[in-house]
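MFS transporter, Enterococcus saigonensis. Tokens?
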Amino acid sequence: MSKETLKKVSILAISFIVVSVGAIGGNIPEIAKSFPDVPMTMIENLVTIPALFIIPSVLLSNTIAKHLGYKNTVLLGLALVFFAGVAPALIESFPVIFIARCIFGFGIGMFNSLIVGFISYFYSGNERAKLIGFQSAFEGIGGMSITFLVGQLLRFGWQASFWVYALALPMLLLFALFVPDVSYDERINRNKKGVSGQKINENQNNTSLLGVIGYIALLFVGVNIYMSTNVKATALMSTLGYGDATDGSTIISVVGIGAMSAGFLFGKTLNLLKKYIVPVSFSFMGLALLIMGLSNSVLVTALGAILCGFSFRTFIPYLFNKVNSSPSINPGLATSLLLVGFNLGSAFSPYGIAIIERLNIFGSIRGVFYTEAIILFAFAIVGLVFISISSMKDRELNILNNEE
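Tokens:
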């Protein structure tokens, strides 16, 4: 295996553990038996508390990288994930486990936003887009694989299942050996000049802070609707009498398959759809929810779920690729803000689902999916209008420049 391939693998490998926070959810009943004096809500917080520490850590990661360098920041984050991740396997003390889970979340946040930073520093154009898509796919594969391994290790006791986080150690070693260091100033300058060292056309790939805020709003809405699909799919099938909880788990799994497929195909999808990728993704996600709402069988619902996962994980890497291709903003800050928007959308999804249920004018559980589809179609139309106006302005600007 060449050094270049090892570098790519080492960068992508750390994505494997990014979405592993909730993997220990199946441990909760067994952990509760070991700590009968601890309230169940506190024990359940072991699953959710890391997410709260990811948000401030993501926001601080670029500041830390400015002083330590990008590589050292990633290595420090992986070290925290390793030690805090396996600590519950060694120490049977609830306060220690709770603190370890907080540190675990902080560690993930330290390198979460920097993964895209390394990709955008070393690669450009189609290669960058392809690797950002792969990074998204690796997250999905990692989440599913680690959850599966936790279930297998649970046979040996709930503490044994935490050994799954020892996977952070080989990731740390790979990254330390095969990924060169990047300083904060180099990262900013490279983004302004491009990987080749050539000055980027300021009229292309230009994203303003206002644009980043718009992307955060898109993420917030998209994540809320995506999460509601996972939550409501089982209720839809059981209420209509064609599925049960087991079928619901299957639906959640096939959503992941669609999402992973989108990640691996993102480079080709971007070349095909270009700037229309967001409205097209929202349109197909709306179509997916419409299919699920109209469905009367597990198979049709599964097909809708696959399309939903594919559409969702198509527009997300596009946003990260877009902000990391723009010379007019700090790419690290923009990436961190997008990740905060993603995590806030996930954290507040129960409230988002409640709002969507209030907006439901159809009076049935199918109507929840219809309402979500309408919202997505509306966003797709607004996106197309915005792109059309932006294209007209670009043409006018080019005409004026040519006249000069």
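The chain has two domains: 3-193, 209-403.
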